């Protein structure tokens, strides 16, 4: 005889997984803001810039931004981010600094 499925347990496991993925996404976005030096902006400035980016339909601009972003990840240029805080700039090296900085960014 087969054991009946525990749908409640499966649903809870899926909800936990979704929560974990959302938390990871938020953390990675915070690390990206820090790595690019955008944490020096106020929350209003950063939000305004992101809204303008999201509203842009010009494919040429978006492609140029994509190339610039790819160059950033390959070369890790740090024009506005202090090098002492981000020696490698990789996501695994900043998990402790991501949460306090995102709180500081919101307060800025």
Can you give a write-up of this model?
- With 108 residues, the protein is mostly helical.
- The chain has one domain.
- It contains four helices and no strands.
- The chain has helices spanning 7-36, 43-55, 59-75, 95-107.
- Helix 1 crosses helix 4.
- The chain starts with 6 loop residues before the first helix and ends with a helix.
- The model is unreliable at 80-108 (pLDDT under 50).
Primary descriptors:
108 residues; mainly alpha
Distance between the termini: 61 Å
Could you spell the SSE succession in H and E letters? HHHH
Biggest pleated sheet: none
The unreliable regions are: 80-108
How would you describe the shape?
elongated
What structural class is derived from the secondary structure elements?
Answer: mainly alpha
Q: What is the domain total for the residues?
A: 1
What share of the residues lie within helices? 55-70%
Mean pLDDT: 79
Radius of gyration: 19 Å
What is the count of helical runs? 4
Q: How many individual β-strands?
A: 0
Strand content: under 5%
Spell out the blueprint of helices and strands.
Blueprint: H1 7-36, H2 43-55, H3 59-75, H4 95-107
Helix pairs in contact: 1-4
Brief write-up:
By secondary structure, the chain is mainly alpha-helical. The protein has four helices and no strands. The protein has helices spanning 7-36, 43-55, 59-75, 95-107.
